[in-house]
Each structure stands twice: as C-alpha cells, then as structure tokens.
Specification:
Distance between the termini: 40 Å
Largest sheet: 6 strands, antiparallel
Strand content: 25-35%
Number of helices: 4
Number of strands: 15
Helix content: 25-40%
Shape: elongated
Structural class: alpha+beta
Radius of gyration: 32 Å
CATH architecture of the largest domain: Sandwich
Order of helices and strands: HHEEEEEEEEEEEHEEEEH
Number of domains: 2
C-alpha cells in the first residue's frame, strides 16, 4: 500500500519508467528491422567435406610420400602408426604456406584455430610451407590449417551492396583459395629417410565448395523475446536496490516499533 502511495505521489517516476521502457523497445525494434530488411551482410554456405588422400611413394620402400591437391583446404590431418621415439616427421607443401601448431586438434585446446590472434595459444602457430614435429610414441599426428579465409565450420559472412555482388564476392573468394599444392611427407631419423616397412600413413583434408549465398536475417520473433527478456532484466536490476533499501527500512522500523512496545514503562 505504501509503495502505491509513493508512486501516486511521484508520477514522474512512473512516467520515467514507462518512457525508458518504450525507448528501449523502439531501439531494439529498429535494430532488428535494419538487420533484417536493409542489411549489407550476407552469409555464404560451403561444403565441409573430409577427403582421404592417396599418398604415393617417391621411392619404393622409403617413408617418403607425395600427393597433389587442387581444392580450397582448411583442415589438414596426417596420422602415422608404427613409428619410434626420436624420429622426425616433415611435411613440405610446394605451392602454399600453411599454419601448424601442436595445439591444433588437441583436446586441451578445444575449438582452437590459428586465426584466434587474441588468445595466448595462437602465438604457438607457425606459418610456413614446411613444418616438422618430433615423434614421442609409435602413433603420431600432425594437424594444420591451410586457409583462414575459408569458413572452417562451412558458414562465412561478407559485406556487399546487393545479392549479385555478394555472390560474385563469394565465388571470387572460393576461386582464390583453390590452389594446386604438392604435399611431401617424409619420416627422418638421424637426418636420413627411414624404411616404410610397418608404417601406416593416412592424410585427410577438409575441402570447401560454394553452395549458396543468402542475406543475413534475424528472426523477429526470437529477437523480440530476447528484447523483452532484456527489458525485464534491466528494470528488475534498476528496481532491486531501491526496493531493497525500502524493505530494509520498513523492516528496521517494524523492529524498532516492536522494541518500543516491549520496553518496560518507567516507574512513576
């Protein structure tokens, strides 16, 4: 009842709350509209296909293989079995430079890629045509990324004036990343190529081809729900402290009043 009286005696507070709420609703509604109807951003979808390459021996019986690719590649993964501690695995790419880090593909760095330059672990990435790693067990794996321009998850975004120019930009991007690369994989020990007897090698790549280009859109219903939740949260936060002070004061007043009633009357 006291809260109602306070609101009725201070109509400016009520008008301020209503005005602020309507302003927030209008701002959020315009944000949804501008990003849905009049957008300059387009999303392009690509395939995200993993392909196993057919490695060929440079010299029969030697752990020295090669293969040629002509596609746009993001992930590169080499798996080897039958190795020994102290060996060195070398991957040399003729036609491109690529990123390598021991953290790529590691469960200790989930979702890590060398494009995350704001993180400390990204400093471990090296960009070169040739990378080497030391073998520490009979199974060994090297994971790299060839292109950071292609969408690793198969969905990328670009800014363009209209649908036609966006499609052309996406096609140009994909075309620029389609390179002819010859990969050479060598296993060394004490500087010499070892025999391939008992060694199993598998090399996989993830390729990307353009599927579609669509204008970026927001779901009006979903965004409205988020906006309403944000609005309620803001008001709840703004009212929390004043109400806490108000009810604390009421509680203190009630306790003081009860103490006054329970206090013995002074003797006459």
């Amino acid at each position: 009842m006291d809260m109602r009286k306070s609101m009725s005696r201070n109509p400016n507070m009520l008008r301020t709350m209503i005005g602020t709420g309507l302003t927030l609703v209008l701002v959020l509604a315009y944000a949804v509209y501008s990003n849905t109807v009049d957008t300059e951003y387009y999303g392009y979808t690509t395939t995200n296909t993993e392909i196993e390459l057919d490695l060929q021996e440079n010299e029969e019986g030697k752990a020295d293989w090669f293969v040629t690719t002509q596609s746009g590649i993001t992930w590169l993964n080499l798996s080897l079995d039958g190795l020994q501690d102290g060996m060195t695995v070398r991957i040399d790419a003729s036609g491109t430079e690529w990123y390598y880090s021991p953290l790529l593909g590691s469960p200790d760095a989930d979702n890590f890629n060398c494009g995350e330059q704001t993180t400390e672990v990204s400093e471990t990435c090296e960009y070169s045509s040739l990378h080497e790693s030391e073998v520490e067990s009979d199974s060994h794996q090297m994971t790299g990324i060839v292109s950071l321009k292609l969408p690793i998850d198969g969905l990328g975004y670009l800014q363009s004036e209209d649908q036609t120019s966006a499609e052309l930009a996406a096609l140009e991007l994909m075309s620029d990343e389609n390179k002819t690369v010859t990969w050479r994989i060598t296993i060394l020990q004490d500087g010499s190529t070892i025999d391939s007897t008992g060694i199993e090698s598998t090399m996989n790549i993830v390729t990307h081809d353009l599927i579609s280009v669509e204008a970026f859109e927001l779901d009006p219903i979903q965004e409205s729900v988020y906006s309403f939740a944000t609005l309620v949260g803001c008001f709840a936060f703004l009212l929390f402290l004043p109400l806490l002070v108000y009810f604390s004061a009421k509680r203190k007043h009630a306790i003081d009043e009860q103490k006054r009633k329970d206090a013995p009357e002074p003797e006459q």
